[in-house]
Amino acid sequence: MRNQFGMNIALFVLFLGVLPALADDSAPLQFTAQRRVQDDAGRWRITQQQTQWRPEETAVVICDMWDTHTCKNAAMRVAEMAPRMNQVVTKLRDRGCFIIHCPSNTMDFYKDHPARKRAQAAKQVATKIPLKGWCHLDRKHESELPIDDSDGGCDTPADEQAKWVADWQKTAGDKRWPWTRQIETIEIDADRDAITDSAEAFYLMHARGIKNVIVMGVHTNMCVLGRPFSIRQMVYQGQNVLLMRDMTDAMYNPAKRPFVSHLRGTELVTEHIERHWCPTITSAEVLGVTTPFSFQGDKRPHLVFMIGEQEYQTDRSLPEFVAQELPEFRCNFIVADEKDPNYFANIDVLDTADLLVVRVRCRTLPERQLEK
């Protein structure tokens, strides 16, 4: 009797220990959504605001993370990014988000996969705005892209690229593209995920009552904006969209306008998206770490600008200064939350900062943030 009583107490204590984890998994997803808003004078300012989404109302779209690419450097960056992306996808899947893998032009590879059949079974729905196969640059909604990608955007040195192309053409046969599937590093759950490269993505979301979409993958200036499952399309259909800005990469060659590094070119496209299409977030918040992903080759000094005042409009002037004078630095902004002027949500980026510039006036930070 005494042993049974002791066992019951132990089980009860164990159950209590599990409760926080269970509660955490059912809690809303929390992000610091960053966007750029134009004021009445035509100047852009950075805003950051805490955003909460229900996991069961959220889909993750993984755009064109192929096993290889026509451009050597692009393929290498995808391979470098994929392990971190898989961690993010695993965490969000476990939280209850619906994962949609979208490796375009590879559906034959997945024709017998349960996740592919799940997408094919999605019932078509009528939409107020017609679903498009490709969503081109929308002059009514956005300005021209800030980079010139008219050469295809490959930044691999010519001799290396020529050898790369010759090698994959030997095995590609009549195929126009070298990719055959999504990069294997990103795991596909046959019981829960879906695979598509079309408007089936929206049908899947509609059937599940999903209204929130996190987009990640490549390439920011091309497929991430234009594919039928990606940003422009989802915004047209009234979805709440976030781009994970550290889980993407652009096709940009620094030999073309505006003649900045490849890394800066990707940032410029991200800023374009923040202005015209949707806010952005980072993988750090999902994984509970302090540092967003960055490529190993990114050796730029890391500058952080902390802005919290309403008198001098430094949320406008400092980003303008950075764009004009510091194009080859890695710059992050910590901006007081739109709804709570005493809270700076992404302050953990200070952990890797080489320099902090503070422009804060009459704010009372929470103790943890003040200590940092």
Mean pLDDT: 92
Radius of gyration: 22 Å
| Strand coverage percent | 15-25%
Q: Oligomerization state of this entry?
A: single chain
Question: What's the structural blueprint in terms of helices and strands?
Answer:
Layout: H1 2-26, E1 29-38, E2 44-53, E3 58-63, H2 72-95, E4 98-102, H3 114-120, H4 158-172, E5 194-195, H5 200-207, E6 212-218, H6 223-226, H7 231-236, E7 240-249, H8 262-276, E8 280-281, H9 283-287, E9 302-308, H10 314-325, E10 330-335, E11 355-360, H11 367-371
Parallel strand pairs: 3-4, 3-6, 4-5, 6-7, 7-8, 9-10, 9-11
Antiparallel strand pairs: 1-2
Describe this structure in words.
With 372 residues, the chain is of the alpha/beta class. Helices cover 34% and strands 19% of the residues. Strand 3, helix 2 (72-95) and strand 4 form a beta-alpha-beta unit. It starts with a helix and ends with a helix. 39% of the residues are buried.
Structure summary:
The chain has 372 residues and is of the alpha/beta class. It contains eleven helices and eleven strands.
Q: Which key features would you list for this structure?
A:
single chain, 372 residues, alpha/beta, six-stranded parallel beta sheet, three-stranded parallel beta sheet, 11 strands
